[in-house]
Fold this sequence. Notes:
This protein is an alpha/beta fold. The chain has 13 helices and 14 strands. Helix 2 packs across helix 11 and helix 9 runs parallel beside helix 11.
Amino acid sequence: MKKLSITILCIVMIFGACFAQNNKKAKYIFLFVGDGMGISHVALTEAYLADRAGKTGSEYLSFSKFPYTGFVTTYSASSFTTCSSASGTAFSTGYKTINHMLSIAPDSVTKLKSVSYKLKEKGFKIGISSNVGVNHATPAVFYANNISRTAYYEIGLQLWQSGFDFFGGGSFIQDKGKNKNLQSLEDITKNNGYAITRGIKEINEISAKTEKVVAFFNANNEVQNLPYAINRKKGEAKLSDIVEAEIKFLKAREDKGFFIMAEGGIIDWCAHDNDAAGTVKEVIDLSEAVQVAVDFYSKYPDETLIIVTADHETGGITLARTGGGKQGFASLDGQKGSVGVLDKEKGRAICDSINNAAGVGFSTKGHTGIVVPVYAIGAGAELFTGKFDNTDIPRKIMKAAGFEF
């Protein structure tokens, strides 16, 4: 009888532990989006890192060793192959829309509410960041609504109206409108209660009394994005710098938690250029930014959820070498800049030659419709396994936080 009682007690304890594990609520939520990052982009980067280390195979990225993984379908309401704004709308609002629309339903009228607004209503502090312009498609789907993703000025006007706490990344695209004849978005944002900072030093010195900030990390307004990783000079900011500042700012001001969306937007641009070397450097950049969140997770493991995924795949990357032999991914180090900064006449040829030397191929300069990976760790991470649609992402985020969608 005594042995039976002990056995029953052990079973109760085990089930109790499992129940407690499954009922941990995510208080600190990170959603990282590798724009255009398919499983082949991850595989290429891991193979490159292994080759650099003198090995054949794969060297894990910060997120590819997460304990929970899955696959996400990306088609839009209008096409099997999505664009960033349509896919972003799906994983921000939970609903499909037509390509090139931004958090607007296919009827072109109904405004869709993003998960960031839903969490804001629950008391979460909100941070939206990217290494491209703050009013580019992916960051914009979390705070704006427009029938056109390229209505940058109109989208930018909605940034301050969101009331979100932290925006970080590249500066406004079309800051004074398409014809440069309108009031500066930067000035409007500042006049409506947001502090504006530039560079790592200014955001690190911001006053504790500052409640809302737009932190620009690009060098100037002429180039709205941060430097490509392959072109970056010493001292220039990168995505991990933004995420580090974002965490610091939000954690000091949160009460009920925070939600951070951080986009590695230049992965997509490099893949559009069929630039394998540039693509690898950008995926590594994203991995380093995720590592900042992982370091935070190590301090708050029971309350933190980190999700890493993509909006779609770009480029149709293949890793193949005919005739056998060593793959030679490390030959990508021979490229000293992105296609855009290499010699205008020879840049494409240089890039193609290095791609070939590494045994990396591209099937398109556009997007593809294949599923993309999702990686998760922390409270509620088990929700992000198997194959599911991108519209399920915000629903799972809300569930992990303990709320109805």
